[in-house]
Amino acid sequence: MELLQLEMENIMTIVQITSMFKRGLGQNEKLLKNIENMNKRDEIRAHREELKRLWFSLDHSKTPVRKEIIVDLRYLDNKHWPNHGYVQILSDGPDGYSSFSTHQENPLQYAKDRMKEKHDGIRDLSKYKLVIKR
Asked: What is the DSSP letter of 79?
């Protein structure tokens, strides 16, 4: 809460400086535009911080476990990158959310090879569900 208060005080200071420039105390229009843009960024940053706090305060203990390797084959016929596609390794549940995405030649073979590795040091990929998008 203190961080939000500090952000709001900073925004008020910027608004006061901006109003001084608008009254004619400053002649540099470029500086005025930078200050106005900084004001907008600070408002967005304060809003994002509040959303982040809200997200981390939610109870995720009942989130269903989802472990998938998603292979996107919709781009195999691309004339610039033939036989290329996207692979995403996704894990979601009470322990948290994790996502890894990569662009590969022969994406289906890449996914199968990763599943054969069993354990990659972080997770056991052989237990993940293989999902193919066409």
From this structure: S
Could you tell me the end-to-end alpha-carbon distance of the chain, in angstroms, rounded to an integer?
47
Bridge partners of residue 99, in order along the sequence:
90
Count of all residues that appear for the chain in the document: 134
Work out the number of other CB atoms within 10 angstroms of the CB of residue 92: 16
**Domain covering 66-133 in this structure, CATH number:** 3.10.20
Task: Determine the pLDDT at residue 13.
Answer: 55
Using CA atoms of 113, 65, 98, 124 in order, give the dihedral in degrees to the nearest 10. Answer: -30
On whether the CB atoms of residues 95 and 111 are closer than 8 A, the answer is: no
Sequence spans of domains, the chain: 2-57, 66-133
pTM of the model: 0.59
Helix (H, G, I), strand (E, B) or coil at 81: coil
Which secondary-structure segment (H or E) carries 32? helix 29-57
**What are 4-46's pLDDT values in tens digits?**
554 555 555 555 555 544 555 445 565 556 656 666 777 777 7
Q: Strand pairing partners for 88?
A: 70, 101
